[in-house]
Write a structure and sequence with these properties.
Radius of gyration: 15 Å
Keywords: ATP-binding, Kinase, Magnesium, Metal-binding, Nucleotide metabolism, Nucleotide-binding, Transferase
Strand content: 15-25%
Number of strands: 4
Strand order of the largest sheet: 2-3-1-4
Shape: globular
Organism: Paspalum notatum var. saurae
Main location: plastid
Largest sheet: 4 strands, antiparallel
Catalytic activity: a ribonucleoside 5'-diphosphate + ATP = a ribonucleoside 5'-triphosphate + ADP; a 2'-deoxyribonucleoside 5'-diphosphate + ATP = a 2'-deoxyribonucleoside 5'-triphosphate + ADP
Protein name: Nucleoside diphosphate kinase
Bound molecules: guanosine-5'-triphosphate, magnesium ion
Number of helices: 8
Length: 151
């Protein structure tokens, strides 16, 4: 089953939005397979955002990501990479639709509270960067037969 890496950034954690955000993924019907609270180093943040290293905001972005606890998660479900990004909303909260996480809960692009992998390769790389394989929990979620139907 498809998996994506989702992180609540330091602003989302400090603003007390963990339960609100986790609940949106949970209620949708996705399965949580890994979760931990960590303060990434700046070097780690630079690895995570390596694709953006030429951008003028890169240094500030990495300082910000490493400025406090981040809630790192792996969520699993059919189409979770693409639809997870829909739940999150556009990068700039000024352009995110109401009803999305950033649209409802954030105001500026530099403090947009959540990260989600942008494609299958990124998801695989980011899961491997943030988690050891043994931290990914394999279990049956009994609600799945109601979420996907049987057969
Ligand atoms: P992530 O899920 O965090 O990767 O966001 P994204 O995929 O929607 O956007 P992208 O990967 O292009 O940018 C990564 C992060 O850099 C964004 O979430 C923003 O926090 C930040 N960012 C992007 N564009 C800007 C910008 O123009 N100015 C500032 N200050 N930050 C930006
Ligand atoms: Mg991105």
């Amino acid at each position: 089953m498809e998996r994506t890496f989702i992180a609540i950034k330091p602003d989302g954690v400090q603003r007390g939005l963990i339960s609100e955000i986790v609940s949106r993924f949970e209620r949708k019907g996705y399965k949580l397979v890994a979760i931990k609270l960590i303060v990434p180093s700046k070097e780690f943040a630079q690895k995570h955002y390596h694709d953006l290293k030429e951008r003028p905001f890169f240094d500030g972005l990495c300082d910000f990501l490493s400025s406090g606890p981040v809630l790192a998660m792996v969520w699993e479900g059919e189409g979770v990479i693409k639809y997870g990004r829909k739940l999150i909303g556009a990068t700039d909260p000024q352009k995110s639709e109401p009803g999305t996480i950033r649209g409802d809960l954030a105001v500026v692009v530099g403090r947009n509270i959540i990260h989600g992998s942008d494609g299958p390769e990124t998801a695989e790389d980011e899961i491997a960067l943030w988690f050891e394989p043994k931290e990914l929990v394999s279990y049956t979620n009994n609600a799945e037969k109601w979420i996907y139907g049987v057969n």
